[in-house]
Amino acid sequence: MAETEYERELTCPHCGYVDRDSWELPDDECGEHDCPHCGVPYLWTRHVSISWSTRALGSGNPQQAAVQHEDTSHGAADVGVHCSGGANEAI
Torsions phi, psi of 71, nearest 5? Predict the structure, then answer.
């Protein structure tokens, strides 16, 4: 094994050990890591995928949604958006 690509967890290219704690690595795009199993260092690269979801505000009427957005955007400190489970809820 000399290389792995697009795995869900860090996988040592030397011994095949799957590091379930790879989420603990720094937020860098790449780096060097010592395999906790065999101890041999290797290079890693993080691949990030971003997707977007949208939802109309209000009743689905574009004019009414625009008015609602205008009305709620005046006091930024008073209005926020809470995103959970793929749904946005004004708070």
Answer: -65, -35
Radius of gyration of the chain from Cα atoms?
22
What is the distance between the alpha carbons of residues 25 and 32, in angstroms, rounded to a whole number? 10
pLDDT of residue 80: 45
pLDDT band at residue 83 under the 50/70/90 scheme? low
Hey, what are 56's tokens? Answer: 């109309």
Tell me what the pLDDT averaged over the chain comes to: 74
Rounded CA separation 57/51 (Å): 20
Query: Nearest 5°: CA angle at 28, between 22 and 29?
Result: 90
Q: How many CB atoms lie within 10 A of CB 57?
A: 17
Domain extents for the chain? 10-45, 54-91
**C-alpha span between 53 and 66 (Å, rounded):** 18
